[in-house]
Amino acid sequence: MTKIVAVPLGYILNALYSFIDNYGIAIIVFTVLIRLIILPLYAAQLRSTTQMQKMQPKIKEIQTKYANDSEMMNMKLQELYKDEKINPAMGCLPLLIQLPIIWGLFGLLRNPMEYISNPDMVLAVHENFLWVNDLSQPDLWVLPILAGVSTFISMKITQSSAGAAGAAAGSMKAMQYFMPIMIVWMGRTLPAGLCLYWVISYLFQVVQTKITQMIKKNGEKKAKKKKA
After folding, report:
1. What gap in Å lies between CA 46 and CA 158, rounded to an integer?
2. What is the pLDDT of residues 27-43, one digit of tens each?
3. What is the pTM of this model?
């Protein structure tokens, strides 16, 4: 599975490097390009999460009313989803689709020469970038910390927009602190090029989420003005 995804991604990275002639910048452009490609999936996931959150009071009402009749509960929930035109699976489907891409990127950026036949890339993967002397080797502190911070900010923004409550909120808050720590620890053992991808990817997601929130707020304001 990794090879099936990594090989075409390798063609893209190779083409970008051939044009840009800087491996670090090529990874940054590559990251932005991949994020733009999966943007519709992320937008669908965000819409589904927002819709499900709005439906929580009705969902809880049904769960409470039919707590002793799981068959009836499921039937009523399906009716609710149908009436509101919501597909609960859309919250997970984009993530499932993204997983092969993530694994392919992991394999590509960890062992680029395994998926790219261009001999020029043999030297390219060892290029220096900013303070990093060799992008094929781990950067012990700066990039891993940046990766952890960007992950924390992204998860915090996502959690606030989702507005989870109760046990779900507790789980999300725990992950909000656990994940960045794990990313920092992992980042210190991974090639700096892969860590650079992670930093840019999550910074892109932060900006993307903020823009989405601004558009949503402006839409709500306009809707209120029309009603008034």
Report:
1. 9
2. 999 999 988 988 887 77
3. 0.79
